[in-house]
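Chapter summary example.
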Amino acid sequence: PPSTLRPAPCLDASSESSVVARVASKAIEMDAAARRCSRRFVTSSMRRRPAAAAAALPPPLAATAYKDDESVYMQQAGHAPPTYMPLSPPELELIGRPYGTDPRALPHPPTSLHAWFGAPPGSRVLVVAVHAYGFANRMRALASALQVAQDSNRTLLLDWSMDEGCGAGFDDLFNASAPPMAAYLSRYRGDGALLQLLVDRADWSRPIVESTVPSGERVLVWRPRGVVVDVGDVVLGDTYPVVVVKTSGFFVRLGLTCQEYYTRKRNFYRGALASLAAPVEAWRRDVLSTEFGFHVRDGVVVGVHVRAYDDAYDWPVVPPQPPQRE
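The structure predicted for these 326 residues follows.
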């Protein structure tokens, strides 16, 4: 889509109205083009459209269809009911045994909602599943989820698993049991097999899913979709004591200013830096004692972000550049 359909991740009051106007103008233009070729134009760039832009768009699908960006946005914002996907009998049988198939499964099936997730009885928790991406992206997603947990008065339970993008466990990097990290989150001690089944239910086309645990209670699974996310009462409210978040990158809650978001993110990062595990902290001090460390202390830092290239994946995204010629 044209660049004018991509508003900045964070907008202040002075710039928001002009961006809305540009998006509205482009929406009307693209909708007219779509109608000429018997197609339908749908945008999820912004929810608060001026009346002229809203009138130019076709009516959205029924709330339960979830076949386009607009209806999916309505679902994520809490204006349409979650997709209901209870655990199937084979899944219930899988996680209701002494299993042996999943090392992260609890040795004895619990009998209550909170026990399945290792949470105190009666508590309101946000379980964050960080199962993919590199270290920096994981930390950005974690910082975003932490703000939602704080704003909804929920305890953050972190499930961090290693993959090829990040070969370190959370406890390898941080001391999560001591302050200040302990004030931000607790480690997930619930059933790993159940959590994996739940996070697999939410995806890009159905970001809000209601499911069940073997004891019969219902739980909400949320995959934040987009950068600026309208987090509705379905997540922030009291309907679901347990909300599971499947991370897919950083996001900003709609209504949060840039300054507040980045200030809170920076405070979390500073807390993480003060909670480094002993081996990591020793390595950091070794680095600071070198010539490179001298420049760090002097305030001169050059960061290099190295990415691998894969022909099968990266060609449509970042095509190889032709060699420069004199």
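To summarize the output: The chain has a mean pLDDT of 77.
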